Amino acid sequence: MKRSTMLAGLLLSGSLALTACSGNAAGADKTSAGPGGQAATGGTVQVLANAGFSHLDPVRGFDGGVNNFYRLIYRTLTTQGAAPGADGTKIVPDLATDTGKPSDGGKTWTFTLKDGVAFETGAPITSADVKFAVSRAWDPEIGIGSPYAKQIIAAPASYQGPYKSGEMPTIETPDAKTVVFHLKKPYADFGSVVAQNTFVPVPKGTGAGTELDSKPIASGPYKVSAYKPGASLKLVRNDKWDAKTDSIRAAKPDGFQWTFGLDPATIDERMIAGQGTDANAIAGTIQAASVARIQTPQLKQRTLSGLGGCTTYMGLNSTKKPLNDVRVRQAINFAVNKQTVRDAVGGSTLADLATSIQPPTIVGRADYDPYPSPDGKGDVEAARKLLTEAGQAGGFTMTLDTRAQPKMQAMAVAIQQALQPLKIAVKINIIDTSTYYEVIGTPSQQHDAAITGWCPDWPSGATFLPPLFDGRNITAKGNSNLSQLNDPGVNKTIDEIAALKDVTAANAAYGELDKQIMKLAPMVPLLYEKVLMVVGSNIAGAYLHDGFSGGIDLVSVGLTDAGK
Amino acid sequence: MTRYVIGRLGGVVVILLAVCLFTYLIFFKLSPDPAVMICGKTCTPDRIDSIRTVLGLNQPLLTQFWEFLQGIVAGRDYGTAHCSAPCLGYSFQTNESVWTMITARLPVSITVAVGAAILWLLAGVAGGLISAVRQGTWWDRSAMALALTGVSVPNYVLALVLQYLLVVKLQVLPFPSAPAFSDNPGLWFESYLMPWTVLAIGYACLYARLTRANVIDTLAENFVRTARAKGLQRSLILRRHALRPALTPITTIFGMDFAGLLGGALITETVFGLNGIGKLAADSIAKNDQPVIMAVTLLAAFFVVIGNVVVDLVYTALDPRVRITSA
Amino acid sequence: MSTTPTLLEVEEVGAAAGGPPTSTQRILTRLVHDKAAVLCLAFLLIVVLMAAFAPLITKLSGWGPYEFDSSAINSALGGVPNGSLGGISGEHWFGVEPQNGRDLFARIVYGARVSITIAISATVLTGILGVVLGMLAGFYRGWVDQLISRVMDFLMAFPALIFMIAILSSLPAGNRPVLLVVVISAFGWPYLARVIRGQTMTLANREFVEAARASGAKNLALVFREILPNLRSSIIVMSTLAVPGYIGTEAGLSFLGVGVTPPTASWGQMISSSVSWYSVDPMFFAIPGAFLFLTVLSLTVLGDKIRSVIDAGEAA
Q: Is C277 in contact with C12 (CB distance < 8 Å)?
């Protein structure tokens, strides 16, 4: 249920994967200085950012911008690994002693908390705190973040969270260390679900209203010492966190200092210059205009790059004429010049051309191109043939929704140009950034096509294909199935995969489902955008984490020389 | 005099109310439903309803407007939370109190405006004076040509040219970043130097032209001729007699310009990434954050209207002729 | 913001005018003998011709304003133009836009159309509004004056730039150029109207108007036959100085992202997209920046010259 946060313009965002590139600076080995080197203990890591955090309350926040950050101050029952590559997305125990014990055919899951885990207040973290925290997801005003707990865990229909409805009856806490979840139906991958932000413990009875947004209660290695929303955030060590209970978080630096509200161009300038405390700084993906400036060997040494783990695509509304004809949608798939679309976002260093719905970071994804063209520049002849078959040789007019943001508009213009030879006149409809998703997610308001993106919540087809293409998920508001595809064949396959007990088999099946869907051409996969970051010269232990939207894994990053 | 001031202040309140109402109406009509915007990704109709109730959006427009006004004067309650006066509501985007946002950013805008004003007053008035005294010389001609050029450069063009030359190419200045004065006075000055210059140049050129024209006009007037005929020295005439009448109109314009800037130098702050009121305005507009848009519009209008009143009062004090007619 | 200085200056200027009209003939003769004015006129002529014959010119230069040229940019380097000086070559006379390779010359030429059309339309609209309302207020006095003056106070107290952006960003795209003209004019007319009002008040008391009134002329005839011709000088001066102001405003609004919608080119929009590129590809910024600056400068100089001719005419 996560929209591409890279597209949402948040910094340190987008999911990411380091399949193609190593994710580490070229040539930097473990012992040398530089981003790949060993981090020393101490010092403060600076983070330069444009957008602030949406929420500090873990039940509210749910985007690439906060998920990575939350690991510094919060712990969950399980979490993703802390390593580059596929090890980073493996689910490992965090507060719990293991990744959960299923019973009742996968409908009941039991977790046991480790000994010695505590909040920043010194109070031990108990199963009651976990239960209380999870039940907050049902509060209509607070539970606006990760939707999985609410979708998967059984609860009375009238339950409205602990502040309104009291204790949640369906989560059991037989003792202070044990918590038992009862699910609506068997869920093989529930061990991944409890790594979601919703499973961050909150001391029982606290956190009403927006309390945690301004003063979070830490369970991780750091706590918030000063927070000015939209301006700055300072983290210091949480001395109640015991490293012995935590095999994931290296937590080398003594603190972190965020500066928000910086202009992206300013961030690039400062990162490239790297003067003063900026040597200890990390930031988000650089702008297209800065790519040409980081080509010196010194800067390349400080550069991290990898795939973002999201797919940027153009949804084609299959309920509108003439896009209701599959041949027209296929023709558009052939005709779009993905090279010019890629140049619009910053060229080959900032994106790969997309061919399938699922990005390469998804486990079990099949690499194929159903609508090939030389160098991805578009095959106008193949498109014309299909349009002629469909009786649309004379062309038509279609409206393309895009966000009021330069990069998105540039992509729209590139598509407009590519479709012009087919006499398809594309009208670009620019929608305000704040209401864009609302408009395109409302079937009565969306137009013929829209440019958007999707990131998986964990790298499996389960959080990619069903939310986008299950025809039974089409809703009057907040709809993610932009094409409004409701194909019985696709729906049937989705159900079949959901019933599979074996996660590996399910992932492979999603790869095939991708092909099945693309035959219907409900969307044009445009790009797999990449992350390209310059880090300060004193930064060490930095790698891009597969699970965190292309962000540098914050729990591992540190400084080469802590005294600087 | 007191009656006059009270009358003027009454006018101020009326204009501000009008600005307020107009802004409220326009954005109420134009903008998308704020409840839906706040509601976010996993939204339900129930949640929209509860947000609408908390924000009072389900009430008639005029009632809402009245509550907004009440909030400014006496504070108001949102659901369970109380927002004490002056209450401008909470940002739809960050949930922060709008009043806090404004007060946090006002110092930056004031720094920008005051620094620029000092620069342009000094440069503009001095340049204009010298030109007037040396009317027709090469100095006068080149200064006035320069002034015309300066008036014609759009300030964002100038900002980018300066940034390219001074920061990127010559690297004599740091990237503007609005550091606190107490942290590092040197860096503070260097950071603000470019924004000040960019803002000041347009005004300085205009003021130079006005000063020159006014001084020349005054010098040609009868009382100056009389003084000269009496054998008074040129410099003395200039100081004693010509300067005050020549500079009085400048005061008027200065008051207005300065007041306008206090409400945020939108383009300059945006270009240089300074977190002042102007940037807040631009950002809130981009995010459709209505309470913040309302607040910055109101604040800017407030400064302009108050500036107007102050200017009139100062003008009355400076120019004896006005005093006589108003008495 | 770029409008403010010019408009304020206009006020000061206008207040002095209002005397007998100077003949157009004489203004032109004087301008032709002024080197700076001739240079400005020549540059403006070029810009106007560019705007008028844009399709013809781009046919000659070979590239349309919307055509992509992927071969002119380097995709591996973020889409920076190939070659030095932003890709200036025989093929692309002014180089190309980064990230898509659109021809800058063609975009400058088409951009001139947008910028000039909007500025002139806004000037005409503010002119009509300002003159009519200003004359009404100045001639009828009383409640008409009260009403119009209060509306002017209200509009002038408005933070126009903030409001223009806010309105433009929340309005549906629709016909952007028309919206721009309407919004710019709505906040621009009071500055002209205020001057016109003051001068009308003075003129209405003059002997020749009294004489015409005594001889039984109707109000409407008085306003249009006796007063309007006497306002001509002020209107000319203020309009000449308003055009560059509006060009600047349009560019400023496009610069802030609420101007014309893509793929349409305007100078402000070009400068806006060049912002992030200025250190890598300074030409992308320099070319539209220079055109904008020179056009505004030419118009300002010209307005200044016209004003001094008129002033001299009165003094004589």
A: no
Choose the closest CB to A414 out of C98, C100, C276: C100
A402-440 CB burial, b ≥16 within 10 A, e <16:
bbbbbbbbbbbbbbbbbbbebebebebbbbbbbbbbbbb
DSSP structure class, residue B58: T
Going from N- to C-terminal start, the domains of chain B cover 2-98, 102-326
Return the pLDDT at B116.
93
Query: Each residue's pLDDT tens digit in chain B (327 positions)?
Result: 677 778 778 888 888 888 888 888 777 666 666 676 666 555 666 667 777 777 777 777 778 788 888 887 777 776 666 777 777 878 777 777 888 888 888 888 999 999 999 999 999 989 988 888 888 888 888 888 888 888 888 888 888 888 888 887 887 877 766 677 777 788 888 888 889 999 999 889 988 988 888 888 887 777 777 777 777 777 777 777 777 777 777 887 888 888 888 877 888 888 887 888 988 888 888 777 888 888 888 888 888 888 888 887 877 777 665 554 443
Strands annotated E in A335-461: 351-353, 396-403, 424-431, 449-455
A&C contacts, CB < 8 Å: 96
- The beta strand positions in chain C, using DSSP E, are 73-74, 80-81
Q: Is residue C105 in some structural domain? A: no
pLDDT attached to residue C102: 92
What are C124's two structure tokens?
Answer: 């005409």
CA A48 – CA A51 distance, rounded (Å): 10
| Within-domain flag for C80 | no
Q: How far apart are the first and last CA of chain B?
A: 8
CB contact under 8 A, A340 and C277: no
Rounded CA gap, B318 and C248, in Å? 35
User: Neighbours of C (≥3 Cβ pairs closer than 8 A)?
Assistant: A, B
A417: its two tokens = 């140009």
How many domains would you assign to chain C? 1
Contact status, residue A43 vs residue A558, Cβ threshold 8 Å: yes
CB atoms closer than 10 angstroms to residue A156:
11
A101 min Cα distance to partner chain B (Å): 29
Pseudo-torsion of CA B278, B284, B289, B293, nearest 10°? 20
Q: Select from A176, A180, A193 the least CA-distant residue to A118.
A: A176
Q: Which residues of C touch A292 (CB under 8 A)?
A: 74, 77-78, 80, 280
In this structure, the number of other CB atoms found within 10 A of the CB of residue A245 comes to: 16
CATH fold group of domain B102-326: MetI-like fold (1.10.3720)
* Candidates C76, C99, C275; nearest CB to A344: C99
Whether C144 is covered by a domain: the verdict is: yes
Please report the pLDDT score of residue A417 as a whole number.
94
Residue C130 lies in domain: 115-266
Note whether residue C246 is domain-resident. yes
pLDDT tens track for A78-115: 999 998 888 888 889 999 999 999 998 889 999 999 99
A-B CB pairs within 8 A amount to 72
Q: Minimal Cα–Cα distance from B101 to chain A, Å?
A: 9
Inter-chain CB proximity B301 and C296 less than 8 Å? no
